[in-house]
Amino acid sequence: MMKERGMFMLGVQIESIAIARPEQVRGNDYYLEHFARRGKDISRLLEKVGRKTRYIATDEENSLTLGIEAALEALRRANITGKEIDLLIFSSQTPEFLVPMNSLAIHRAIDGSRGMINFDLNANCIGMFLSIEQAVYTLQNNPRVERALVIGSDELSFLSNENSTLTYSIFGDAAVALVLKKDPSNESGMLGIMHETDSENYDEIVYPVGGMKRLMKERRPHEGVYWGRFDGVDSVAFAERSIHSLLEENGLTLDDISLFCFSQFTLNNIIALKASLGISSE
After folding, report:
1. Cβ(173)–Cβ(21) under 8 Å?
2. What is the pLDDT of residues 171-202, one digit of tens each?
């Protein structure tokens, strides 16, 4: 019998985590020099964003190859085979293929069973979080699913334009894979989750520009992602509200939390959230 707490039932644990990154690494000096040759100083931008290194895929690497590498390593760390995975979710906003599902290629690479549930998911920045949420729901409600493999992988550098100070200096590539296991005797699990959807600026980050049909029909040259008026700062207020709400629902306080993992577009947003919550760097 799974135990309940907050918004979710408990009894799901992370069995293993693995990451995969390209070997090609670029530091801030690379981007400072790149734009200095174009007469642009991006030092203030780099300070605000807070990146130190970017891992950039080579011509032989992409979101699928990185995803497979992370998946195989996650299985190795969990000391299991692909046959023991019942659910596979591949999350990417830069999928290598539209057809077939990239998860099918991963299924073959890990030698998965024929009874495995598998699908791709694209929810942009929060794709990995949504994938974990869906995996937890399935583990708790489908008696045939005992283990889930969730993979998030993006080759964002491919979407950048070397003339764009924002996208070219920020985007990098990586993959992460998690093995989640159903375990009714374990009190770990997802306590709660909150979403906020604001579609006001839905057209401020766009790829391909003009849409897929136009890109394919006109065979236009690769021009990178269009990035308009978006800096992610609106997410700070929601993050603060949701954290307080989730803690209250579970009878917890900020002092009960030993680790915060903030995923934000810029370091400045993390600093602002830390200040608004009143938590220390430690």
Report:
1. yes
2. 999 999 999 999 988 888 888 888 888 888 88
First to last CA, the chain: 37
Count CB atoms within 10 A of the CB of residue 257. 12
Write 99-107 long-range contacts (CB < 8 A, 24+).
102/63, 102/64, 102/67, 105/64, 105/68, 106/64, 106/67, 106/68, 106/71, 106/151, 107/82
Nearest to 26 by CA among 51, 62, 63, 60: 51
Q: At which residue do the structure tokens 């991006």 appear?
A: 42
CA distance 71 to 68: 5
Q: At what angle do helices 234-249 and 267-277 cross, to 10 degrees?
A: 40
Kindly state the tokens that stand for 181. 């296991």
User: 3-class SS at 114?
Assistant: coil
- DSSP at 117: E
Q: Which residues in the chain come in under a pLDDT of 70?
A: 1-9, 221-222, 230-231, 264
Cα–Cα distance for residue pair 136/244, rounded to 1 Å: 22
H or E segment to which residue 268 belongs? helix 267-277
Alpha helices in 89-126 (DSSP H): 102-109
What is the CB neighbour count within 10 angstroms for residue 198? 9
Asked if 67 and 105 count as a contact pair (C-beta separation under 8 A), the reply is no
Q: Which two tokens stand for residue 122?
A: 């694209």
Question: Cα Rg for the chain, rounded, in angstroms?
Answer: 20
Residue positions counted in the chain: 282
Locate tokens 């950039």: which residue? Answer: 56
pTM of whole model > 0.85? yes
